């Protein structure tokens, strides 16, 4: 009978490269330092210490190098390290969404342009989108340091050059304003909104996460939030951020085909649906996602009529 670490991650999208258990030997060959953090788990198989931030960062660097050919992925330790399989899933579901408007044909190539709202220091969504689908991206962020880090990653990997346009959001109250220009034609937006409403809430969440991963009670989460504050925290939390996004999306109704965002908290969905009713999109969708024990979902909406959608896709 297979041990738990040998069970395929069947909740991941069918095109996700990490549906099968990690090949830790191959990943350690890609990033040798990862070997120091591989240990035998309680099921008798090799595993990575997911409660250790250094181990998690090395694992994700190895995933990017082994599966996506990204050799240079450096960013400050204070910034969030994204889980590669979950981020890839979002983009695969967006590809499916575009396919629905194009007779089921997967759209690959630079004619497709996505906007990553809050690209962060790791530039992870554009990296995967470029490598999987050869899409182009606009990458926005409110933090100059994150934009500088993302740009450095782009400059350090030849396959990303001329594929990602980094833009600094200078208005703390805006999401699309100051980023989307009149000449831009954006096929989709993606966003992983700040999850917490305060540092205290973020600390509680971190303690809970560490406790779940390690089984140890942690009184204080030793994290430096100085660089990652914008990634984690927004006044009013996830719901307020998405509320602002929905309201502002109406102003850019004809500049973008599909607006979308992750929604981590299921309790926020009811309010989000009410907000969408107010702006009256022509279509909206909720796409369920699941990675490991965590469930999330994508909420997507468009203001384009069927005729406008047809005209739009004819240019693909």
Automatic annotation (TrEMBL):
Q: Name one GO biological process term.
A: rRNA base methylation
GO molecular function list: 23S rRNA (adenine(1618)-N(6))-methyltransferase activity
Q: What is its EC number?
A: 2.1.1.181
Q: Does the keyword S-adenosyl-L-methionine apply?
A: yes
> So which domain of life are we looking at?
Bacteria
Annotated function: Specifically methylates the adenine in position 1618 of 23S rRNA.
Q: What is this protein called?
A: Ribosomal RNA large subunit methyltransferase F
Gene (name only) = rlmF
């Amino acid at each position: 009978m297979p041990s738990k670490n040998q069970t395929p991650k069947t909740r991941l999208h069918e095109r996700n490269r990490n549906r099968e258990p990690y090949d830790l030997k191959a990943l350690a060959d890609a990033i040798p330092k990862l070997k120091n953090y591989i240990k035998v788990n309680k099921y008798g198989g090799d595993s990575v210490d997911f409660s250790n931030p250094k181990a998690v960062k090395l694992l994700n660097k190895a995933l990017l190098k082994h599966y996506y050919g990204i050799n240079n992925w450096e960013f400050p330790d204070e910034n969030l390290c994204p889980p590669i399989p979950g981020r890839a899933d979002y983009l695969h579901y967006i590809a499916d969404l575009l396919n629905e408007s194009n007779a089921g044909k997967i759209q690959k190539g630079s004619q497709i342009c996505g906007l990553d709202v809050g690209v962060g220091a790791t530039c992870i969504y554009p990296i995967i989108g470029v490598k999987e689908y050869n899409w182009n991206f606009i990458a926005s962020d409110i933090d100059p340091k994150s934009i500088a880090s993302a740009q450095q990653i782009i400059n350090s990997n030849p396959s990303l050059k001329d594929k990602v346009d980094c833009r600094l959001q200078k208005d703390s109250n805006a999401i699309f304003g100051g980023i989307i220009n009149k000449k831009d034609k954006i096929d989709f937006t993606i966003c992983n909104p700040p999850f917490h409403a305060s540092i205290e809430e973020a600390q509680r969440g971190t303690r809970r996460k560490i406790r779940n991963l390690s089984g140890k009670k942690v009184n204080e989460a030793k994290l430096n939030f100085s660089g990652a504050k914008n990634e984690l925290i927004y006044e009013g939390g996830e719901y307020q951020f998405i509320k602002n996004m929905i309201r502002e999306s109406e102003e850019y109704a004809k500049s973008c085909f599909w607006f979308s965002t992750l929604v981590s908290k299921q309790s926020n969905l009811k309010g989000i649906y009410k907000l969408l009713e107010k702006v009256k999109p022509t279509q909206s969708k909720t796409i369920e996602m699941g990675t490991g024990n965590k469930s999330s979902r994508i909420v997507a909406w468009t203001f384009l009529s069927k005729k406008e959608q047809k005209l739009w896709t004819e240019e693909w």
